[in-house]
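Can't paste images in this forum, so I'm doing it all in text. The chain is below; anyone willing to post the predicted structure tokens underneath?
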Amino acid sequence: MTESAAPILAIRNITKKFMGTVALRDVSLELYRNEILGIIGENGAGKSTLMKILSGVYPANEYEGEILLDGNLRRFTSPLDSQRAGIAMIYQELNIELDLSVGENIVLGCAPKTKLGLIDWKRVQAIGRDMMRRLNIDIDVTVTMRNLSPSLQQLVCIARALVRNPKILILDEPTSMLTEGETRNLMVILRRLRDEGIACLYISHKLDEVFDLCGRIEVMRDGRHISVYRKDDGYDSKQIIEDMIGRRLDMMYPKMDHEIGGEILKVEHFQVPHPFTGGKSIISDVSFSLRRGEILGLGGLVGSGRSELLGAIFGAIPHTRGRIYKNGKEIWIHDPIDAKRHGIGLLTEDRKKDGFIHTMTVCENMTITILRMLLRGILLDKRRERETAREYFDRLNVKAPGLFTMITSLSGGNQQKVILAKWLMCGLDILFLDEPTRGIDVGAKSEIYKIILQLARSGVSTVVVSSEIAELVAICDRFVVLGKGRVQAELDRDEADEVNIIRAASNT
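Text version of the structure:
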């Protein structure tokens, strides 16, 4: 890379808003030929939004600012425009057709044709073999993708991008599904592509990879460009992590004393299959304990398996190995009904997908978990349903016109309160909270924190997953940090801070 030369890509003053929320604010950066530029930041920093602008997912009329390629202004209206301009995007979740061959996947969308307009299968295989040779990979291009390892599938995605002769390759968390050996192999390939003149934007939460691979690092936070670091100057991991965090813990985190009792839940040697890759585990061997009235923070990077671990314990997704003990006795959870019977609830990561029923009111969504308790004979006692819902509506300070308001008309924070009420009505003593404050405003976040602390004071034990490390540090009593399918660290409150948690999760 020669920064005195003109950049191959220049982003100038990009601002992107979603319904009034600013996702990117006046972001600028430059990428040079023969460079691998690292883009890092916490979840919500704006990295993925910026990449979607570059790849044409968000068209030019939906943002402010300029994109220049080789000094020329470009306005993309679709991903196809971006591809034609020489930008190739490889997503974290591999976009492949498992039942097509390697060669077919490589030419997907640009298959060569015969004079009759039919697919030229000989050329398909020839192109596939040429791309495999370029990447120095020995794969039979007639083999179906389903039979390949995740790393080889990833390399086929790179080959599919390269067959279009891109100038710029964007990789979003490319090693989240790879082993250490597979990751090292990918690093060799990326350096070779860099030396061939392809510029790369590399997005990853794994700082050790970024430090090793990237000549420069751009740090983003809260939709803004924060700082830039150069490998030649030496990377200061502590300073870079502080730039990523960049926020003070203020009064939005309420303080409330609560007692912590003896062990209520113990999970031993859990193994959970990877949701997207057959034959691979996202959780290899995880054990942890939870005490009565404790708020346990479950930390880790994207792809570390936090959500999958909670879902497997709750019985919502399968696990291949592991035991669960409650109050010292082994329990068996095969589905969420079993979990509920044992006093365990789960507030899921995506409330719109599986947190509430869109066609129901606030009242109906609250009481859906206790309908059997509200029966009078074979009919639902509507008066008892309203009274029960009203109690939790007031207790959690749900801001809505009334109990019979459709839940879809509520703000994200109030929808989250309704989902919390649904579980609290069950009288459970263990609650899993997966990203409980995602997508809600600061005021609603503070109210959710108060509810969590009040639950702890009443003896309810909670496990909290959050991508906001400051949030975990502020409200949790103890921390289990996941990475590479295992527990990377267990930290008490007095030894846990944002830097230590990120370092443990990044394995740096």
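The longest helix spans residues 180-195. The CA atoms of residues 304 and 484 lie 6 Å apart.
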